[in-house]
Design goal:
The chain is an alpha/beta fold. It has helices at about 25-40, 50-55, 60-70, 90-110, 115-125, 140-145, 160-165, 175-180, 195-205, 220-225, and strands at about 10-15, 130-135, 155, 190-195, 210-215, 230. It has two domains: about 10-20 and about 110-240, HAD superfamily/HAD-like (Rossmann fold), CATH 3.40.50.1000; about 25-110, Putative phosphatase, domain 2 (DNA polymerase, domain 1), CATH 1.10.150. Keywords: Carbohydrate metabolism, Hydrolase, Magnesium, Metal-binding.
């Protein structure tokens, strides 16, 4: 028996990194290198760790990830501008430095989607459930195209769309709510599927039908404590009964 009854669900709203593709791992590596290179220039700073990623960065828009982590270390930098070069010691500069590292790895190594995630997407499409990507990343379309799954998603709400529409990033519910609205659905007929703490917080704040936590390292209890009512390690666990 499936963990989730899909009969009354009109839309499935998927985060991208760590849910559809294992790009969360690529992001983690890029954040680690960028922050540790920067921290090495400051006396007395301990290295950036995986715990820092989950506590301060995971799921947030890039600028907010930089800001939140640096604040946790008592480091203040000017915000700068979105077009700051990666060499600039500003919030935008560090964010752009991280993005350059991420893009380099994506171009060199490519990416494949999680098989269980695509199984679920295909099964839902076969039932008439509309599928969207809701991601803080501005690289979402490039990642989906590289993974050859972009055509499976009717709607992509990424960091570019959020900026254009003036939508607050996760943990605010705005991007997920906007996606449901584009489908003409109330939030309580859409399911949010997330691997990040900020993402399940977003789903809880928006009062969606279900908030699914995909445990790729954040931890089952942490996901439940922050808003997930179902936690899985593979989205194939949610395949509808045939």
């Amino acid at each position: 028996m499936t963990l989730l009854n899909w009969d009354s669900v009109g839309a499935a709203l998927f985060d991208l990194d760590g849910v559809i593709t294992p790009t969360a791992e690529v992001h983690m590596r890029a954040w680690e290198k960028m922050f540790n290179d920067y921290l090495s220039t400051i006396d007395g700073q301990a290295p950036y760790t995986t715990d820092d990623y989950f506590a301060h960065v995971d799921g947030k828009p890039r600028l907010e990830g930089v800001r939140t982590f640096l604040t946790s270390r008592g480091i203040e930098l000017p915000e700068g501008d979105p077009d700051d070069p990666p060499e600039a010691d500003t919030l935008w500069g560090l964010g752009n430095r991280k993005n350059a590292l991420f893009t380099q790895v994506l171009d060199e190594e490519g990416i494949q989607p999680y098989p269980g995630s695509i199984q679920l997407v295909d099964a839902l499409l076969g039932r008439g459930v509309r599928c969207a990507i809701v991601s803080s990343s501005k690289n979402a379309k490039a990642v989906l195209a590289t993974a050859d799954v972009i055509g499976k998603f009717e709607l992509i709400v990424d960091g570019v769309v959020a900026a254009e529409q003036g939508l607050a990033g996760k943990p605010a519910p705005d991007t997920y709510a906007w996606a449901a609205e584009q489908f003409g659905l109330p939030n309580d007929r859409a399911v949010v599927l997330e691997d990040a703490i900020s993402g399940v917080q977003s789903g809880r704040a928006g009062r969606f039908a279900h908030v699914v936590g995909v445990d790729r390292g954040a931890g089952e209890q942490a996901l439940r404590d922050n808003g997930a009512d179902i936690v899985v390690t593979d989205l194939a666990e949610l395949l509808p009964d045939s």
